[in-house]
Amino acid sequence: MAVQKRANQADIAERLGVSVSTVSRALANEIGISDVVRRDVQRMARTLGYKSKHITGAASGDKRAVALVPLGSATSGLSGFYFGIVEGMRQQAAEAGMTLDVRLVNDQMVTLDMIRKQLAQADAGGVLLAGIDAWDELAVWSAAEDIPCILVNGSDPQMRLSSVSPANFYGAYLATQRLLDAGHRRILHYTHRYRPTILQRQRGFEAAIAATPGAQGVIVNSADRHTEELLADVLAGKHDVTALFSWNDIAAVEMLEGLYAPDSPVPGGFSIIGFDDLPLAGMATPRLSTIRVDREAIGRGAIRLLGQHMDGETAVQQLEVGVKMVEGETVSTVV
């Protein structure tokens, strides 16, 4: 069996139709080489598995990445959600031989300049943004500089950046259908500001309602009514609903005590379903019915997707991780 020849600069030059001197200078980041040529050379080096002391870790096959996790999410009720994602990323990175630098950042301070600095400090060739949505400047920069950027627990409706997220639409459809199957026909969906991922949950709710004759959906946004205000509205019978589907577990759990208190005015059998299956859902009394998100799988998928892009994959991909219904104790059948 013939031994495969190790790629050299001449191979890169031949593939690209440039001189060996140009390849050498591009790999060494010398002046006088355009950004386009430099990116093409480094991409081809990755594709061929070329090793060089000059090129960055990502280009040499020694993959290095930075994961930026919003500090607010990591230290709030969402900490369990992002902890699972980070654990999945770390596990997959270790298996793939990728060096992963996880950094907590102020989500109000995430700018393109900050991302550049984080990448430079870690000598990284790719970035994972957890719970941070795409914006025009970021997408343009990622494409122009050939720096892979993966949205983790996010999505880009304009399909400029690859992403990994739970199946938000189908998870919401599943939750709403569970309430419909229990006989509920007037259901309230409590939603949040319109991140693309959360909007998919609203669309899933609307689709399930539309597919069921006689069903009516009521949508309330947290920007209009805070959780305690919505709870007061429901207790007062304002929306005339028998069930509620919340965009996440945190808001749902905050309403449980009021809804199921001995002196609660809501009719017997009032039902509520959350989303995410955070640890607090299992600790709640009664146990919250919810949609389980495989957070570790999201993290693993993000690393695999980033690795593909660092190896030269250019197609934008939107990976969805399946979800499951957790029955809990907060769904009752309407008699």
Automatic annotation (TrEMBL):
HTH lacI-type domain segment(s): 7-61
InterPro entries for this protein: HTH_LacI, LacI/GalR-like_sensor, Lambda_DNA-bd_dom_sf, Peripla_BP_I
Presence of the UniProt keyword DNA-binding in the record: yes
Gene Ontology terms for molecular function: DNA-binding transcription factor activity; transcription cis-regulatory region binding
UniProt entry keywords in alphabetical sequence: DNA-binding, Transcription, Transcription regulation
Pfam families registered for this protein in UniProt: LacI (PF00356), Peripla_BP_3 (PF13377)
Gene3D superfamilies: 3.40.50.2300, lambda repressor-like DNA-binding domains (1.10.260.40)
Domain of life: Bacteria
Name this polypeptide is given: LacI family DNA-binding transcriptional regulator
Species per Swiss-Prot/TrEMBL record: Devosia litorisediminis
Upper taxonomic lineage: Bacteria, Pseudomonadati, Pseudomonadota, Alphaproteobacteria, Hyphomicrobiales
